[in-house]
Predict the structure.
Amino acid sequence: MANVLTELFGLEGRRALVTGAGSGIGKGIARRLAQAGAKVAVCDLEADRAAAAAAEIGSGAIAAGCDVSDEASVAALVRDVAEQLGGIDILVNNAGIYPTGPVAEMDVADWDRVMAVNLRGPMLCTREAVRVMRSGGAGGAILNVSSIDSLHPSFVGMSHYGASKGGLNMLTRSAALEFAPDRITVNAICPGGVETEGTQAAFGDGLKDQLEERIPLGRVATPDEIGAVSLFLVSPAARYITGTTLVVDGGYLIT
Ligand code: NAP
């Protein structure tokens, strides 16, 4: 039994970079990958927060500060992580922001910031990490953290967010096609509501109750549950899956 689990889900010898992993879903994903044996680089906007998360995760996790929307910052991040870990086999594009604002009152700077972090960021990280994966010659796995809002608008005021994540789904498919000859898979997950540092305020204002009333499984997810599904998609068990978007929402979208 143990051998089968190791063969299918073990990440021993794999090197993973997870963005926005100082808190929330990213930290949950980084923890699961480390538990499966990967050497993990925890990246976050705040270097201190990344360091605290890496220390909490343990298993030799390293930390790095980076703004994923900034080209030079991403290039430096990937260079440093590849040097420290000896390569990169797994990239998880998780860093994302979700401010609210209706289209009719949209501030162009808010629109641009959401696109820069949620869409340009994954493209820059993918571009840089793929160069490292290709030079390693052993394939790789890229996972993009999208959202159910990429498929269905949950609330008024999330148009920039939904558009950025819809773009991320398409980037996922395009990149999957482009990198298949290199045996680099590219997939996305679409979580529904997840209890994180980022959703704390909105959930406290009654949003959590509203969501849970509609979710067939009756509750929002934990970051560890999203981490478990992420582990599957970057594991050997999923090596024949590429270009897919997997909904992880407790059944929300079937209602
Ligand atoms: P979170 O608790 O706010 O954590 C996101 C982390 O990313 C924070 O540590 C944040 O740092 C960091 N970050 C923000 N901008 C960054 C940048 N430019 N460069 C590097 N790091 C940056 O958010 P979350 O709820 O875990 O969400 C994580 C991802 O899941 C996002 O892509 C989000 O769209 C997606 N998602 C979340 C939910 C949900 O219900 N929570 C549902 C569907 C999809 P700072 O705090 O310093 O800004």
User: Anything to note?
Assistant: The chain has a mean pLDDT of 97. The chain has eight helices and seven strands. Residues 42 and 96 are 15 Å apart (CA to CA). Residues 19-20, 22-26, 44-46, 49, 66-69, 94-98, 117, 145, 147, 191, 193-194, 196-199 surround NAP (CB under 6 Å).
